[in-house]
Amino acid sequence: MATNTEHLTADLAELDHIEKHLFAHNYAASGIYFSGATTDPVKGAAGRGEALAILDEENHELLCSQATGELLERLVAAEKNGELDEFRSAEVRVLARDRSREADIPAQLASDYTRLRVESGDAWHKAKPAGDWESFAPYLDQIVSYMRQIAEFKDASRNPYEVWLDEFEPGTSCEFYNRFFDAVKATVVPLVNDIVKQGYQPSRACIEGSFDTQKQWDLGIELCKIEGLDMDALVCAHTEHPFTDSLTSRHVFVASHVYEHDVLSNIFSMLHEGGHALYEQGVNPAYDYTCLKGGTSMGIHEAQSRFYENLVGRSEAFAPVLLDLLKKYFPEQMADVTAEELYAAENRAEPSLIRTEADELTYPLHILIRYELEQMLFNGEAKAADIPGLWAQKYKDYLGVDVPNHTVGALQDMHWSDGSIGYFPTYALGSAYGSQFAAKMIEEGMDLNSIIASGNLAPIGTWLGSRIWTYGRGKDPVDLINGAVGADFDPSFYTTYLEEKFSKIYKLA
Predict the structure, then answer these.
(1) Which residues contact residue 103 at a Cβ distance below 8 angstroms, ignoring those fewer than 6 apart?
(2) Distance from C-alpha of 502 to C-alpha of 191, rounded to nearest angstrom
(3) Separation between Cα atoms, residue 374 and residue 390, nearest integer Å
């Protein structure tokens, strides 16, 4: 007769078997997505969608089967009895949660939604350069419809939009984000108004002109090295909309773009995506073939990317480091530029049209606009056909700018085309998380400015790596933040940072 220990050993072996197969499916899906966004031919979308749908069906069948459910029930009981170590306890908890989010969704609905997202993404890639909202709008309506249906199966007791908010950032809700954005608006809107009224803007002449795109790319790769990325575990590629993904901690993708007449665009995209990649590379390698691989949430992920993009990349301390790089690749164009001029130019705060190119101060207003529009779509207050008009009105109301076409308007982001509705708020939230992390580093005695100015960012990576990255999905955001800073999330660190930085730059009383 088998003992309890023998039963547990057998159950853990079966868990490993399931995890390895789920890993293989996700490995294939991530690779397919990466090639689809970077190197696939235009006519490859249908085949890509079919392959991803099949993988999704097989994942669903494996994760949501009765046998897997029974296995997880036994392992959850073992965890409650103290029979599992910390790693196994986290693995069982996270996989059980993943299963609960998918178990009640009909497999056909899930695979149909996967196919739709590929078709929608392909439609967006064609519509954006053409400024053709009308061709994309039907896909957005279908995406919202599917997401509402799926949310009902996930948790019928909650507002469908909040189901997705919680999925991208566990523990959040509209109430949570409303409080957060109210605090942000109370600081950012008056600051922006004061800057506009003052009428002074730093010159951007030092970064204007034509910059060789290959040299820009090479500069971006060097920034990845400065951030501390393992280049032997990194693939960099070109794409329309920058993103990061990973297969394991030893195989991470970064995709970015280069614009000939905007030398800062790829610099900050690579710093941003590099932050994501550092997180993926920094997860405990023991988690690679399990559900604990990768970042725990979009907000925590964006905290890493926005930290390296803004708190490092746009800091006064980093300006001399960045200027040395620019002079290395563009010696003639940057010969007479000073670090002070570069810092002022890269932090020029003024209302603009494009989220990804927005300055650090006005950026959260771009996010707020998307958050409000997403609620309208989910609550039935707007259809896709209404979005361009609403978009233009909100950009006028919040930022005072006119939207000349859909390419720089409602078509500028890919997120809605692939079902990432509910993701946008995490960008602003991540910035706020990062500000609280930086404050804690300084409180603990880290001379953050000196570290950044040295160009050796290893101490920052060590701090974030030990308190955030290594845990992968093993800790939820609330627990990670509390463990990292010894307190709950507090948006005042973010608003104080913005107020102090931009009041100094613009010499506001």
Answers:
(1) 63, 64, 69
(2) 8
(3) 11
Q: How high is the pLDDT of residue 2? A: 62
Q: What's the token pair of residue 371?
A: 């958050």
Residues with Cβ within 8 Å of residue 385, at least 6 apart in sequence: 137
Amino acid at 499: E
**Mind listing the pLDDT tens digit for each residue in 15-54?**
999 999 999 999 999 999 899 989 999 899 889 989 999 9
Cα–Cα distances (Å) from 363 to 168, 198, 270, 360, 508, in that order, read 20, 20, 17, 5, 20
The DSSP output letter for 259 is: B
How far apart CA 19 and CA 25 sit, in angstroms, is 10
Catalytic residues: 273
Nearest one of 313, 346, 327 to 452, comparing CA atoms? 313
CA dihedral 294, 295, 296, 298 (to 10 degrees): -130
CB 498 within 8 A of CB 359: no
Q: Is the pLDDT of residue 378 over 60?
A: yes
Nearest residue to 169 (alpha-carbon basis) of 301, 257, 81: 301
At 292 the three-state DSSP class reads coil
Distance (Å, whole) CA 167 – CA 420: 10
Residues 225-242: tens digit of each pLDDT: 999 999 999 999 999 889
Of 427, 146, 480, nearest in space to 283 by CA: 480
Assess contact for 161 and 448: CB atoms under 8 A.
no
SS3 195: helix
Question: Global pTM?
Answer: 0.93
Chain centroid to CA 378: how far? 21
The closest alpha carbon to 431, from 480, 380, 493, belongs to 493
Residues whose CB falls within 8 Å of the CB of residue 63, separated by 6 or more in sequence, listed in order: 18, 22, 95, 98, 99, 102, 103
Collect contacts of 11-19 with beta carbons under 8 A, ≥24 apart: 11/71, 11/74, 11/75, 11/78, 12/75, 12/88, 14/71, 15/71, 15/75, 15/91, 15/92, 15/95, 18/62, 18/63, 18/68, 18/71, 19/91, 19/95, 19/289, 19/290, 19/291
Spell out where 410-491 has E strands: none
Q: Is 214 exposed, middle or buried (0-12, 13-18, 19+ CB in 10 A)?
A: exposed
Instruction: Identify residue 50 by its one-letter amino acid code.
Output: E
Nearest to 404 by CA among 367, 357, 354: 354
CB atoms within 10 A of CB 91: 24
Average pLDDT over residues 358-378: 97
Q: Which helix (H) or strand (E) holds 342?
A: helix 339-346
